[in-house]
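Q: Predict the assembly, please.
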Amino acid sequence: MSVPVLVFASYADAFGARTVIVPVPVPCTVTDVITAMRELPGGHCLPGKVLVAVNHVYARPESSVRDGDEVALIPPVAGG
Amino acid sequence: MTVSTHDALIEIVGAPIDLARLVAHVQHAGVGAVATFLGTVRDVNDGRNVTGIDYEAYQPMAEAEMRAIAAELGAQWEGLSVAIVHRVGTLGIGDVSVAIACAHARRAPAADAMRTAIEALKVRVPIWKRERYADGEWTWVDSTRSSGSGEPG
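A: Predicted assembly structure:
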């Protein structure tokens, strides 16, 4: 089982991809996804607290991730 | 629930922004004031000479967040009309990265909403920028690590 996770900007550079396939069983939590990503090549780039969006909405660490959800890691934003 | 008179114009675009199009969108007969904001690429940030900025967005979520901001503004100032357009891709010095237009019957709500919109955009809309410098280096701007404010405009 795995979850595809969208990554952007500095995170995309670190993981060397725009989508990272994260080996974690679903359903799980946002924290489970982040914990698994820290073990992947490039995962060392992630700060202590990582913002995650599920289906285009900012999610809490304990929020659920289910099969088919669109999960994205959101680096510190810098629009404007 | 406040019903907005006009749907907000919300876009992430890859081409130069035409402010006149935003103003035309928010204008209608009941409007007495239009407040506009342009964010532009400047040539120095944190003491380094900037030659350009590459902007990247998580487009569907960025547009959803911008739409949510517009809805919140509309709930706070009844009768407000809003347009927010952010550009992505490679921008040069002086290029417009973001444009906002807020229109209302009165000037104070128009101006306050415009200021609230840009401040909200900067803290919650998933857009990133990579600054390119005169010495050939580049970096993703991260206000959580920067010593300065990281304010681009």
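Chain A has one domain: 3-74. The two ends of chain A are 38 Å apart (CA to CA).
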